[in-house]
Write a structure and sequence with these properties.
The structure is a single chain. The chain is an alpha/beta fold and 207 residues long. It is built from 5 helices and 7 strands, in the order E-H-E-E-E-H-H-E-E-H-E-H.
């Protein structure tokens, strides 16, 4: 039941941290203690300090715009691909779209039993076309999503198929061999920061 915001930033702006953070928690869907966090009653600890002047002078102070660095730390790697319009590999694009769809059907009431926490993964099988690796089919779909108590695993899986997977993944990429792991642990009532908390960004390379 606690949100801690800490770090360093230098700004002339006056921010209402309480309003911003509680609004973000509300937008995520954590609006009831039964979900593990309630934006209305959670404890909020703010520990924001000014950025170290030693770091500032090395990054932006006294520098021309074209010489300003990205910041204190940064890990960037990856590549663009023509597999999707977004330039992202099809696997991550489909996984992201499934995650967004989970949020959409939760918020519009289509799947009102959904809770905010969830994770998705898509595995794609490729084929060699004149030396280029081209997506051929979706091999595996994994969705684990937090849910209200009382709904059966059968209902969860059926609704995820109908309202999430079939709305996101093109039918021509799915076949009778596609494997589905939908809430494979069998129960995911306790979730969000109540079930597993840590530092945002701690898995920067994985994510």
């Amino acid at each position: 039941g606690m949100v801690i915001v800490f770090g360093e930033i230098t700004t002339k702006a006056t921010l209402d941290y309480q309003k911003i953070v509680r609004g973000a928690v509300k937008d995520m869907g954590f609006d009831d203690g039964a979900k593990g966090l309630d934006y209305k009653s959670c404890n909020l600890l703010i520990a924001i300090e000014q950025q170290s002047p030693d770091i500032a002078q090395g990054v932006h102070v006294g520098k021309a715009d074209e010489d300003i660095g990205a910041g204190d730390q940064g890990i960037m790697f990856g590549y663009a691909t023509d597999e999707t319009e977004q330039g992202m590999p099809l696997t991550i694009q489909l996984a992201n779209q499934l995650g967004k769809r989970l949020t959409d059907v939760r918020k519009d009431g289509t799947c009102a039993w959904l809770r905010p926490d969830g994770k998705t993964q898509v595995t794609v099988e490729y084929k060699d076309v004149d030396g280029a690796m081209v997506p051929a089919r979706v091999h595996t779909v994994v969705i684990s999503t937090q849910h209200d108590d009382g709904i059966s695993n059968e209902d969860i899986r059926a609704q995820l198929q109908e309202h999430v997977i079939q709305k996101v993944i093109p039918a021509e990429l799915l076949d009778e061999r596609t494997i589905y792991h939908l809430n494979p642990s069998g129960r995911f009532v306790i979730g969000g920061p109540h079930g597993d908390a840590g530092l945002t960004g701690r898995k920067i390379i994985i994510d």
